[in-house]
């Protein structure tokens, strides 16, 4: 038996996918469909999620985080939201959950829904703002404006949510430094606890991807500007695209991905990383909203170690190489790691392997040396 297969790993995180949207954004390639007008289709989907969760029996005993993503989970009605959260409660002991998140679009946030979230133990909101510039919002296919985004955040505060994350994007078409300054000014006013600020990625299955659009080439310029701007506002970068006011607001769920912890994904299009009988598998729910099934792809030893390096180097703190599989990954790639250390792209200190500031700028090139 291989050493790496004997290292015990529990499931720490659960991802629940709600694929329904009231509109389709031009840049999005996640599994999604226009929300059906009849409740029966949505309820039938929620029943499938219920059945899928039931197949895990007692495997959620060590669960620490839940993330409801989409799609647009906030487009569900009050009754549908209640049904979803009742289903999750049936399979998970919420008392043991450290972080319970749900994604919201500003235009579908209501005080009633926020109160439902709160009553069922959700303690973190991820609001898809994308930009506070109304012209850019229209160009990327969003249905809200900056006024609606501010109202959603105000409602969340009124419902006593004190862990709010907003999603923003840079490197959009026709976006300028002045637009970034506008976003930074809004951040200064609303003071979210957490910010995920991503560069536009032209995904193949998005509307823009299918139209063969080429993305703007301002990545490095905007990345540096965004980082400096957020640091001035008191945010600390803890991952390539993520910032928080304090360490307690770092996304525990996303950190579990970057640390290559085991997680379960349920719902159409959801993916997971599971251990079954001493073997590691990537799972993917394929099919459609009406009928999907979970596929399992075994992760070979070399691929597992590469995943640990690829995901772990996204974190500013890096990879704890004294910990279980991380140690095996370090030993497996020790030659490549030492070469990148000699080049000043990686560093090793107090058992943590991490990118230098120069290494972050060329992370993709670093990862190529491990292939």
TrEMBL record:
Highest taxon, organism lineage: Bacteria
Molecular-function annotations in GO: 4 iron, 4 sulfur cluster binding; coproporphyrinogen oxidase activity; metal ion binding
Alphabetical list of SMART domains matching this protein: Elp3 (SM00729)
Residues in Radical SAM core domain copies: 6-241
This protein's GO CC annotations: cytoplasm
The keyword 4Fe-4S is assigned to this record: yes
CDD domains: Radical_SAM
Keyword Chaperone: yes
Compartmental location: Cytoplasm
Keywords noted in UniProt: 4Fe-4S, Chaperone, Cytoplasm, Heme, Iron, Iron-sulfur, Metal-binding, S-adenosyl-L-methionine
Example GO biological process: porphyrin-containing compound biosynthetic process
Cited Pfam families: HemN_C, Radical_SAM
Function statement: Probably acts as a heme chaperone, transferring heme to an unknown acceptor. Binds one molecule of heme per monomer, possibly covalently. Binds 1 [4Fe-4S] cluster. The cluster is coordinated with 3 cysteines and an exchangeable S-adenosyl-L-methionine.
Family of this protein: Belongs to the anaerobic coproporphyrinogen-III oxidase family. HemW subfamily.
The name this protein goes by in its record: Heme chaperone HemW
Taxonomic lineage of the native organism: Bacteria, Bacillati, Mycoplasmatota, Mollicutes, Entomoplasmatales
